[in-house]
Amino acid sequence: xxxxxxxxxxxxxxxxxxxPEPLLTAGSSRVADxxxxxxxxxxxxxxxxxVGLIVYxxxxxxxxxxxxxxxxxxxxSEWDPVNEQFGALPxxxxxxxxxFLALLIAVxxxxxxxxxxxxxxxxxxxxPLAFTTELLAAIPSVIYxxxxxxxxxxxxxxxxxPFCARYFGWTSGIAHRFGFQGPFEGPPYGIGMLAAGIIxxxxxxxxxxxxxxxxxxxxxxxxxxxxxALGATRWEMIRTGVLRNARAGILGGVILGLxxxxxxxxxxxxVIGNRPEIAASLFAPGYTxxxxxxNEFSEATGNIYLSALIEIxxxxxxxxxxxxxxxxxxxWTVTRGTVARSHA
Amino acid sequence: MPExxxxxxxxxxxxxxxxxxxxxxxATAAAAAAVVLVLLPLGAVFGYLxxxxxxxxxxxxxxxxxxxxxxAGGGMANAIAGSAFILLIASVIGVPIGIxxxxxxxxxxxxxxxxxxxxxxxxxxxxxxxxxxxxxxxIVVLTQGHFSALAGGVALAIxxxxxxxxxxxxxxLLVPNAVREAAYGLGVSRWRTTLSITLRTATSGVxxxxxxxxxxxxxxxxxxxxxxxxNQYWNWKINQPTAALSLQIFSYAISPFDEWHRQAWAGALxxxxxxxxxxxxxxxxxxxxxxxxxx
Lengths: 344, 295
Known about the structure:
Oligomer: heterodimer
Number of helices of chain A: 13
Order of helices and strands of chain B: HHHHHHHHHHHH
Helix content of chain B: over 70%
Mean pLDDT of chain A: 87
Structural class of chain B: mainly alpha
Mean pLDDT of chain B: 88
Order of helices and strands of chain A: HHHEEHHHHHHHHHH
């Protein structure tokens, strides 16, 4: 067990000439020890205080809006700064739909990458591949946004969306029966929910795959050997021996990815279209909770406008915290007891 | 199957059905395809950054401030310097607190209270950056009365602290207890042991953590939107609005001017080169072994 144990002060100091002088004089002070302990404790308390401060500022900042609209704030779709009428429903919808879309695309890819790196690829390729996928996580959000505006969006407008409309357009028929717009209906702007979902997916893949890799590494080697000894092929070994044992942790990784997608701001703001409307079509522009704060916070005039934006921030904070805690718990159920340090 | 010389080869090479062999092959192909699909955007992003950005980086871009709309030329010198300035403020605030909290967790925090701080650091790590921006706005901008470099620095510091705390703790725990005991045995006090023996041994690991945190916040834009705010001119005052590379890229990217788009690519290329350099440096330091002095 690491962590130093307190030591008893030696009764007799032997032969003080042989012991280097600076260490003894500099080290014998009990007061200095106390001060050091206190200073480190203060740093630790800083972390606590920061989270406390975040909670306090968000709650006190959103009080005005909470009193004006109550819980209905999250179920109203009106966003009218001129008449000071605010409802967050379009933003909640946009955040949920874009994140869901992102996970739908990212999760199979991320698990595929993790399986390939941990179980299939030759040893010499392992390090470089892991490094490259982690590099995806190091690219700043604003650069993804820049790339999406000038490369992804034109591609979607010219090829992606017309393709979807042609081959998946039949889904509109089913959607119309329930009174909705089809998911691949409407003019292909390029900018919109689909672009946001795709760029989010690219950003979420490295997180999901690195956690998946970590929990798969935590599955004991004997599991694999046992399944192989029964005559399984490699894929059967991965499916029954590894993935099944790691599924809680993989779910944790997916939820962690969800947490990232929910709070992601810049790239989404740059491509989602920023229109506070609820549309069923993925081609239509939308708006998310994070991007409405990013776009309107510094220009918000009037206290209640600002307060409504802070309340959206508070909601975002609460949701991401719950999602992250859940994810960490799930990852912990798989990796506990093993020293899984595949990251860093 | 080729004949093997093993005694029980009949058992080992029991026929595997076509279906099972096929699904094995299919799964391998699918996983490899996933890798290709994930690396594709990575390649595309880097490719476009170099292709579009490299032509726009010149001496003027690195030394001049932005020109008004319609005039060609100008650069992002003030934004590059502003980013460095904000990151410096963030590091001055965030690094000591982060390392201190990490030391506390590793050396004094093996108890319930330590677990509370550990959990809180993880919570802080998951807070969306835009929310951190709101909080920095509330505590710095509102009290000062205007946007400032300090507010941006505080926002980024809040984001750096949890990463530094957790990696510092992890690295200090890797230092064998025997090293600490040896120091105690020489009569060195606890604080001195922690600073000049334990922390010294784990230095490269701790630096790794700091660099990771640094790389993570270097490209952050959302928390700077309403804290540092951006500036078209030079600014070295801590309480004035300051330009930042990421903010400049954002505002140029969503502008309708080709000249500004060109500069956005160039700025993005510079930003990514800085970040990749930091991450690679981490990789090299980490690869050399966390605990050079320990053994």
